[in-house]
Amino acid sequence: MASPEPTDPAGFLREHLASASPDLLRDMVKTFAEALMSAEADAICGAPYGQRSDERVNSRNGYRTREWDTRAGTMELAIPKLRQGSYFPDWLLQHRRRAEQALVSVVATSYLLGVSTRRVEKLVEQLGVKQLSKSQVSQMAAHLDAQVEAFRNRPLDSGHYTFVWADALTMKVREAGRTVNVHGLVAVGVNADGGREVLGLDIASDEDGAGWLAFLRSLTARGLSGVKLVISDAHRGLVAAIGAALPGAGWQRCRTHYLRNLLTKVPKTAQPWVATLVRTIFDQPDAASVHDQHTRVVDTIEQRFPTAAEHLDTARHDLLAFTAYPREIWRQIWSNNPQERLNKEIRRRTDVVGIFPNRAAIIRLVGAVLAEQTDEWTETRRYMGLDLLNRARLTTTDTDRNNDTDNPPMTIAA
What's the pLDDT score for residue 287? Predict the structure, then answer.
């Protein structure tokens, strides 16, 4: 390619401002980028373009074109060539990647916000960027991996996490040529400052005890300690995993999920009546009244639906574990509703994707969402007051007493 004379940026700007070209921004970006590359090539050569000099150590050898995708659209850049060696503007482009670095951030952010790769492709086409494939979008989004990995493996050194909510979400992923269901295990805790934070994320093939045990042990390995109560649905194997990985922690069965399970034990016409009765258990002013009302509700339901009454009576200990803690925080710890709101935000992003290509893609997207949510929680007011947390830590529960009985103090022989 012939070597064109470098354009004067100032004159070019005056000319196009006067003509008010609709492609002004694109032309300006192109001109300034080429002017900067030309100046850098002159510095490498030791002398300006077209000038004789004793200090010259190299000379130009024309230009090569390369497409450059920017927010102003796709443009062809003229990159200087040298007679000896090679020149490449690493500060502007990366080898084998045509996208401007700012555009990479735009694409990755769109992916994080739940925009599908197909929609991202259409979005950048509207910006003037041509031929950006879905695979390129996914590659750009992969730069989130380092940030997500640091978030997932950060030390949990904010003191005691008195309350922990745990839940699992089912997602679809392609593995070995098949579409299978995997489970995203998520834990949220209240730290020593009374603020909420996402403690961890992991992907398990099944929602069994082994998956939960490995997940909880990974949290304790990172520093999770001081847990008094875990709030969750009745996931398979979770209760046993809590006892193994978090000795001394109790379990609160989510009242919302439990009520749905209980209503399956009665006819549909009686479900509103049973639901109203069960809710009165949680409307009592103190712990003793809650337990008394639970007994009355069991007796009332037993007259019509003995199976449902037995189910409710069996769940007494797990359903009323919250009563051991200060009355002011009952509403926050008697159900998994706080995490359900977080799950809705995760679903809003993952439903756009549908089927993930691999587990790493799930961790990338969901992990970024959780890191973003943790940052938002950090900037908001405390979820629990410090005085209430201190009182909760001093609470002695049945679990604590059982642990003391099972593990009596050791005596040292004289």
Answer: 94
Please tell me the pTM assigned to this model: 0.69
pLDDT for 302-332, tens place per residue? 999 999 999 999 999 999 999 999 999 999 9
Q: Record the tokens describing residue 101, joined without a space.
A: 């670095």
**Residue 169 to residue 149: CA distance in whole angstroms:** 20
Distance CA 39, CA 102 (A): 23
Question: CA dist 218 to 1, 154, 203, 223, 352, Å?
Answer: 59, 11, 12, 9, 30
Taking a C-beta distance cutoff of 8 angstroms, is the pair 254, 339 a contact?
A: no
The count of residues in the chain is 414
**pLDDT tens digits, one per residue of 390-411:** 888 887 766 555 554 444 333 3
**Spatial separation of the C-alpha atoms in residues 29 and 35, rounded to whole Å:** 10
Question: For residue 157, what are the contacts with CB-CB under 8 A and spacing of at least 6?
Answer: 223
Question: What distance in Å separates the CA atoms of residue 112 and residue 99, rounded to the nearest whole number?
Answer: 18
Q: Which residue has the tokens 């008010």?
A: 20
Identify the helix (H) or strand (E) that includes residue 231: strand 229-232
DSSP code at position 229: E
Alpha helices in 222-286 (DSSP H): 238-245, 255-263, 271-281
**CA dist., res. 235 & res. 320, Å (int):** 18
* DSSP assignment of 304-368: T-HHHHHHHHHTHHHHTGGGGS-GGGHHHHSSSHHHHHHHHHHHHHHHHH-EESSHHHHHHHHHH
The Cα–Cα gap between 399 and 247 comes to 9
CB 203 within 8 A of CB 185: yes
Q: Which two tokens stand for residue 185?
A: 């295990």
Tokens representing 9? 């940026």
Task: Report the distance separating Cα 323 and Cα 319, nearest Å.
Answer: 9
Q: Which of 398, 409, 346 is nearest to 374 (CA)?
A: 346
Distances (CA, A) of 153 to 98, 148, 198, 201: 32, 9, 12, 10
Distance between CA atoms of residues 366 and 269, nearest Å:
40
Q: How far apart are CA 11 and CA 247, in angstroms?
A: 75
